[in-house]
Structure formats: structure tokens, C-alpha cells
Amino acid sequence: MSEGLGLKVVRLYRLEGGSKTKAFLDIALGDFIVKGLKIIQGQKGLFLSMPQDKAKDGKWYNAFYPVTKEARQALTDIVLAAYQE
Which of 6, 51, 71, 77 could bridge across to 30 with cysteines, CB 3.0–4.6 Å? Predict the structure, then answer.
């Protein structure tokens, strides 16, 4: 999937300290950049958090997200591999 779409991590900023947020990152998806993804330490390990916007109702909604489970897994694999380098 990543080869066909040109998916890659273009910026990765690791955070130090005891925060659950471990890194902020931006990805390139073909000719587009998606900013604001985060790597979070959860109870079951690291996971990828999508960029979110706060709506008028006060709730947070994902501004970008994969449509399929396979696309989410491919994106997560690429991002976590870049984080662990």
C-alpha cells in the first residue's frame, strides 16, 4: 500500500519525559502532507492518533483517518517503524 500511494513520514519530533504523547509527526501521502499525527503510549502499547479538530459542539473529531482496517494498519506500521529507527 505505501509504495503505491507514496506514503512516508516527512517529519518526526520525539518528546522526552514521562508524557503519554511520545512523538508528533507529519506524513506525505502522494503530493499531499497530513500534519498533526501523534504517537501515544497506551495501556496495550504504542498507537497512532489521527489529527483532530474541535467542533462547535466542543467535541474532538478526526480530521484525517483511513477508511479501511488494512489502510490503518499499513499507516501504523510505517509510522511506528520510523519512530523506532
Answer: 6
Position 2 pLDDT exceeds 60: no
* CA-wise closest residue to 64 among 51, 83, 74, 53: 51
pLDDT in tens, 28-73: 998 899 999 999 999 999 999 999 999 999 999 999 989 999 989 9
Q: For position 1, what pLDDT does the model report? A: 47
CA 23 – CA 15 distance, rounded (Å):
5
Q: Is CATH 3.30.1120.40 the classification given to domain 2-84?
A: yes
Please give the Cα distance from 24 to 51 (Å, whole number): 10
Phi-psi region of 14 (alpha: psi -120 to 50; beta: other; left: phi over 0): beta
Work out the number of other CB atoms within 10 angstroms of the CB of residue 52: 15
